[in-house]
## 1
Amino acid sequence: MNAEVCDQCGKCPSACPVTARIEGFNPRQIIAKVDLGREDDFMDSGVIWTCTSCLKCRERCPEEINPYDVILELRREAIAEGRQHPASYDEAEKAVTETGVVSQPQPARTRSRDRRDRAALGLPPAQKPKDQTKFTQAIKELKEEKA
Amino acid sequence: MRVAFFPGCTAQADQIGYEASVRAVMPRLGVELAEMEGAACCGYPPYSSVSEAAWFYSSARDMAIAEAMGLPLFTLCNGCHLSFTETKHALEKDAALKAKINAKLASEGLHYEGKAELLHVFELLHDGVGKERIAAAVTKPLTGFKFGAHPGCHSIRPSKLGRPDDSENPRKLDDLINWTGAQAVEYPGKIDCCGSSLASASGKTVMEIAGEKLKTIKGLALDGLVTTCPFCFKVYDNRQRAIATTIGDRTLEVPVFYYTQLLGLAMGLRQEQLGIELNQSPVDPVLARIGGA
């Protein structure tokens, strides 16, 4: 994860919108702990799920570390190890695998509390895979090949 | 100009007013939106934590559809545009992964080569359609209005992958606002995040982060905030009342528009054509001042 080249310069936490607001989330400290092999200090604390993915740390890092990618890698590890994580990740994965999209079209509310769906706005049907079985099958096979 | 139109899950399922405004405005600017039959999710980056292979598959598959159409892939969402860009880079670097994805795409008669150009709203409108054509289409210039531009994180970062606008001083959305006759005003925190991705971990923090920007816009007495990202819009517009409650500022009233809605109004289109009745923020005073909308 390249953590060993971190100078601990502090540009990432000073750019981070979360560090100022959520106790324990500090990309610089996360990198330091990864470098020391002490991921277990925070892996179950929930902090790795509080990144907004704003990418300021990735943009401002003077080294080739990319704290955002380190956090994504830690999330992948956490899920692979069966650690606790927000349910929305599994829900999104299930939705995409089974329906091709994260969310199904639903009527939207107007300011005067009426409902409008796609047809009412003159929009064509929403996009989705033509052959859902093939789409689902391809994703399942790719996941199995990886495992 | 003809483009393969990819609204993305959030716009097509939830932010249908945005999609309506894009469909109303683009043909009048000489952009033909070709339907992408069978397109699916962009890959949805957060989902990559659960299954990276599935992310690349879904993402490459959409690009393969655009490639088969021989058209640039036009996305409405900052997140989708970055997802496609990241996949493109990953498959360029990893020939084995590309071959693996292509083996799966073959069952639907698709093939990914990475040839389809990706177009963000800024690139299509600012760099493609351009100032002259937009100015010519504006029949009701929004003279006297001042707006703050919110480009959104994934349209400007990470610069190493090549983004639609500059990472530290993005100006394209400002130019686009100025071309409607309104004035885009610089404000502190313009390149800051809306916080939306935190919704699953800490809804309260999203409200605090987003509230800060809305307070800035209000403090400068601007007429509203303008964006093109459906995730950002959902927070600033759809959740504005919740933000006001969370940060304890009941006076927080900031009109929020999709850029294509604002442009449509300046082109003389009616608000029903632009899905503005679905905006939840207090846009009515602005609409009344524009008049006849």
Note: Residues 19 and 26 of chain A are 5 Å apart (CA to CA).
## 2
Amino acid sequence: MEVPFQLIVRVHVRERVDSIDTLILPILAELELRGDQRVVRSTRSGTDYTETITVLAHHTGTIAIAPATLQAVDARDGRAKQYSSNPLTITVGGGSLDPLAGAERFARSAWHWAVRIAIWGGSIIVVVALAALIFHHRPVRVPAPSPEPLPPQPPPAPARSRRDQLSDALTVLRAERSRGSAVRVRAAVWRMIGASEGETLADVLQRPDTTDARMRTLLRSLERAAFTYDADLMQAIDDACASLEAILS
Amino acid sequence: MSEKRPSQLVDALAQTIVGQREVLDGLLLALLCNGHVLLEGPPGLAKTLACRSLAAALEGEFKRIQFTPDLLPSDIVGTRVFNQSEAAFATVLGPIFANVVLADEINRAPAKVQSALLEAMQERQVTIGPQTHSLPDPFVVMATMNPLDSEGTYALPVAQMDRFLMKVNVGYPTPEEELQILDRFAVADTQPVRAVASLEDVKRWRADAHAVHIDEKLKRYIVDLVAKTRHARGISLRSERGQTVDAGDLIDYGASPRATLALANLARARAFMDGRDFALPDDVRAIAPHALRHRIGFNYRVTTEAVSPERAIEALVAEVAAP
């Protein structure tokens, strides 16, 4: 109560207009109008219209505000239509114009907080004291016998070198000349150079590991083997094998 | 004599048009796919020149129709006039009877005129009075829309937008390109585009492009991409204000099955232009924004949340793993 607040109505239309004259605002009989600001902003996709109404309530209780309505002809079907905003119900809280009443409220609130802090503070001291007492009387634990030492682990297998992986790829492609093996080899080579699943060849060719011309040729030939038509598949696999041999030589 | 390639056509156009590579590629892709292009961009970006040059480079006929609110369907398709000397009606064919038709500012004409044009685009024939006339082959419509001046325009209905194979956004040239434009057009008489291919070449290219192979994995990728436009809920993207937005909140409806066909055809055409007889995931990814941007129903929140449709499509495409 007696505190100004704002009601904001926003309208977006697809056309570009200077003003929206058919917007009907609700009657604010129970509120005092303190200001009304309209902003019309044209964007690429139409017009954004914002109306900000500043109002003041002079009494407490519930105030119902009817929806704002917009009447317009829909250009898509030529029919007149009415669009509405949501209705609002606001509850105005109590207040007083007497300055002494505010001071009294403040003093009462401060006293309540002081009592609460004292109760919580006392509780925390009691809990800490109890915890210290329990910890002090805890029995001393006998250390458990140490477990048998673990047998020595075999050293991890050395990571296969890039050359080994490409050699494997060549072996697979020579052994199984099919679309499936070409797709698997393509995926393995992509993993080898750090490409993630879901990237495309253009993404992969931008990676720093693929600046070598022979590697780029290999990637392109594997792409072809993965996506070309059946009659071209054997030739594509031959080209991929030749690219692998060129890198391995 | 060596066989002519589409790249020669693009090179010939590039001698007249500075930059605008996406527009030139778009025009050629539409030509190869037997489709039509919607160009959206501010005035003065060589849209008309590009279309006129394309027709000249193909030895084809070019017609330009300026769409206005008082345009009638008969102004486009033609009409029948009474010949008094012969006491009979004669048919006068409209400007739509050309190989390359520029429909300038298509959204300035009312729906019935747009419908007349788009029906002709779809059916590739026009009925005037009792007679049906086939449109020439190749027949490509390049329609333009100006995003800046939308007062007094009629938005294209969704069903009609869908009939455009692709929508290309025409952007401003870079400063370097603009310097080139200054130099190139400083002379009084600019060199006209010479013919580098014939209409028969276009028909042959079209057949070759149609024969480009699309693997099953790629077909699945295309279907998944289009499906993602219909189920975008849960995909997060950053707005221009740096806020996280759910793509599902921005989209009212996704792309139609026509988008699936368009993606496949455009991927084939792009592969053909690149000299390949098989399409790759890169082809699909490259043409996806052009095939999808006018087919996805973005709502007003792309404006209020400051997310461009391009950014939303980028996020959708990134969400689907390429094969």
Note: The CA atoms of residues 48 and 195 of chain A lie 44 Å apart.
